[in-house]
Amino acid sequence: VVGPHSGGAEWALTLSTPAQGGGSAVIDMENMDDTSGSSFEDMGEMHQRMKEEEEEEGEAGAAEEEDGEFLGMKGLRGQLGRQVADQMWQVGKRQATRAFSLYANIDILRPYFDVEPIQVRARLMESMIPVKMINFPQKIAGELYGPLMLVFTLVAILLHGMKTSDTIIREGTLMGTAIGTCFGYWLGVSSFIYFLAYLCNAQITMVQMLSLLGYGLFGHCITLFVTYNIHFHSLFYIFWLGVGGLSTLRMVAVLVSRTVGHTQRLILCGTLAALHMLFLLYLHFAYHKVVEGILDTLEGPNMPPFQRVARDIPVVSNAVLNTTAKAIAL
Amino acid sequence: FAGLADVSISGDIPVEGEITVPVGSRSPDEDYSTLDEPVKDTIMRDLKAVGKKFVHVMYPKKSSALLRDWDLWGPLVLCVSLALMLQGGSADSKDDGGPQFAEVFVIIWFGAVVITLNSKLLGGTISFFQSLCVLGYCIMPLTVAMLVCRLVLLAGSGTISFIIRLIVVVAMFGWSTLASTAFLADSQPPNRKGLVVYPIFLFYFVISWMILTFTPQ
């Protein structure tokens, strides 16, 4: 609302709060979606709204008509009961729709995906560089795009590893196992460390923890990508300590900078370091363990054929054998 | 209509015009009445629309036809045929090592939903079902690759067949990614195209991987 000020020359601008969508606090994106004019959901919604209005009009009309025709207490009470039930249903449905549009709106997540490709690249590089300054709380970007993409990349790499090693999953499917493992680790360990951080009075929010652990999986992705293709155990251990260690050190340094007290720092960072490194170990060995068997069978034909060497049978048993044979022959 | 019984029109006044009914009681897709036409016409019209979209995927130039009239028939047919062809491979019958029908189905639809959500969260102007439609139609090159792989595997499964399959699958994977990028990336702000293309790349990579590692029983 723009109105002239009493002074005449100045304009006072007051903004009225937009009250659309039944009072939902988040802007309903369906109203701003320009290109979906012919899409099914919008038509469906419009149709539903019109049907509701029609039904209300129709009901009112029908109720009046029927009240006039079917006189009698029974008809009236039945009619009243039905109307009350209908009204309760309408009110309940409207409340549920409002709650749904408020909480299931994906716009809640929109601020966490507000990144540029340059930022994502920079954060990926930073996740391998441990910070030196641990006396000052380090900044953690609360962003979810990078971590989510890293988890999906890890799933893809795991699938690749399982396929090349012909891992056979008995109860379940390859894809389900890979997704369950990666997402379970990311969400589960984040929640656990967040809980520990809450106990140890560390300054970190859930989204920041998700983001930190997600970017820490970058080291895992690199290690597994290399070692699933080049099968040397020593190479894996070098990568485990080097790459895995670097990303763990970075996470630990950031957490240390945000916690006070030696015991708390020890608990928090010890747990995180142990879980992170052990997860990499687990991923390598559990999803690739058949590789050794395959390597052995591949080397089989190159081994010297099994040598038949005459064994030195001890004299005693020879004598027993001869005696027994003689006894039977008798 | 009781009140209309006594309306009389004098014979020499021609009555013409359109009887229009108010908007509320008209169903959404009836600009023209499609209830009275023969079933063959309805089916042919839908088939032609699906066919036109297939052609658009084959030659991916920027056109809005795929986006404007989205439909999910094509993606459904492609998904079911791909899942059927990928079934029953790569392990003995006791343990299920190969992808099952439901697994492939879930991967394709779950992956498409995740990519759509991601592109919406990054500020895209495309609607949910339009994006699903584009991603589903762009699986077509990979379905063709699966068909070719199965035919090649009928001939034999040595190193040469693996190389042929690898080349075919990689080519089709590139085609799928380019086709879907041509349609989807335009709906993003220009500096964030890379962020949307990467999940699409990963999605088609997983499907290509399943196709490439398929070994029949």
Helix count from the secondary structure assignment of chain B: 8
Backbone structural class of chain B: mainly alpha
Helix content of chain B: 55-70%
The low-pLDDT segments of chain A are: 1-24, 32-39, 63-68
| Terminal CA distance of chain B | 70 Å
Q: What is the count of helical runs of chain A?
A: 11
Sheet-strand content of chain A, in percent, reads: under 5%
| Secondary-structure element order of chain B, N to C | HHHHHHHH
N to C succession of SSEs of chain A:
EEHHHHHHHHHHH
Percentage of helical residues of chain A? Answer: 55-70%
Mean pLDDT of chain B: 80
DSSP strand count of chain A: 2
Strand content of chain B: under 5%
Structure description:
Chain A has 330 residues and is an all-alpha fold. Chain A has helices at residues 29-32, 40-69, 73-103, 117-126, 145-164, 174-199, 206-227, 233-257, 262-286, 290-299, 315-329, and strands at 2-4, 11-13. Among the domains of chain A are: 80-114; 141-299, no CATH class. Helices cover 66% and strands 2% of the residues of chain A. In chain A, strands 1-2 form a two-stranded antiparallel ribbon. In chain A, a hairpin with a 6-residue loop joins strand 1 and strand 2. Chain A is extended, with a radius of gyration of 35 Å. Chain A starts with a strand and ends with a helix. The model of chain A is unreliable at 1-24, 32-39 and 63-68 (pLDDT under 50). Chain B has 217 residues and is an all-alpha fold. In chain B, helix 3 packs across helix 5 (128-137) and helix 6 packs parallel to helix 8. Classes of the chains: A mainly alpha (330), B mainly alpha (217).
